[in-house]
Amino acid sequence: MPKINQRLLRRLQEELNLKQRQVYNLVSDKAVELMLPRHQAAIAVAAENGINISKYATHDDLVAIRQARGSSSPTASTETLARSSKSSLKRPKLDSGFPDPFVDATVISSAHRNSELYPIVYIFENSVRNVVSIVMENAFGDDWWELKVSDAIKKAVKIRQSEEKQYPWHSQRGAHPIYYTDISDLRTIINTYNKEFKKVFGKIPRVEMWIEEIEKTRNILAHNNPVAKKDRDRLSVFARDWSELSKKIFDEVC
To answer: Under 8 Å CB-to-CB from 205, ≥6 apart: which residues?
Structure first.
């Protein structure tokens, strides 16, 4: 079976600002998604990220990728795929459900793409909350929140809780104060008690990098702005890395 073109691999690392292992993970996911060999999955990833794939892909590669995508036009030329490398190979359905004359198809398309990211951010943030809660409880007991969390974080949480009580008809968050923290609060707790978290995280700066990068995407989503393709891919890689670590932590401390 042909191997991934090494020049293409390096190009993906540069364009996505990822390490080689992370690019391999991205390609592996794409291979599973499209049921393609990895060398063709790498070409598909490159095309989705605006890389000119003409010098990396053969005619047969382009045919295979087009078929995997389920092209609605079986007679379309394979050259079309290469020429359209600056746009996604998979088009979202442009239907908002709420017609609005002030937005065009570009805005609706961005909304669909952003909607795919929300579950990743939601799961990641709540997973970090639960890990922080378990590590702190194991280290300091059931009263860890009152005893060990800074006054600044507790004050911010109380404000959020108070504001939420003003709208009793609206959905409420979890009962524990940890569910009123934001991702920067969690990062502060981790840094404050780095000795305890180092036991489960290993290299804390690595985890901080994941949190920081995912927080950037979270803020873009929260303000309803479009997230660039390379940032979406980076989010998936970091979320996957966290998932692997969280499974290890679960086995060790739960």
So the answer is: none
Neighbours of 228 (CB within 10 A): 13
* ∠ CA 42-48-52, rounded to 5°: 80
- DSSP code, position 143: T
CB 209: neighbour CB atoms within 10 A? 13
What pLDDT does 35 receive? 79
Residues 32-60 pLDDT 10s = 777 778 888 899 999 888 888 988 988 88
Strand, coil or helix: 121: helix
Local structure of 162: helix, strand or coil: helix
DSSP 227-248: PPHHHHHHHHHHHHHHHHHHHH
Question: How far is CA 111 from its chain centroid?
Answer: 16
Q: Are 23 and 13 in contact (CB under 8 A)?
A: yes
Amino acid identity, position 145: W
Query: Mean pLDDT in the chain?
Result: 81
Contact, 12 vs 45, CB < 8 A? Answer: yes
Task: Report residue 112 CA to chain centroid gap.
Answer: 15
For the chain, the domains span 6-88, 115-253
Is residue 194 scored above 90 in pLDDT? yes
Backbone angles phi, psi at 36, to 5 degrees: -120, 155
Please tell me the predicted confidence (pLDDT) of residue 156. Answer: 94
Among left, alpha and beta (phi > 0; psi -120 to 50; other), residue 134 is alpha
CA distance 245 to 235: 15
Q: The pTM is what?
A: 0.59
Q: Is residue 25 within 8 Å of 59, Cβ to Cβ?
A: no
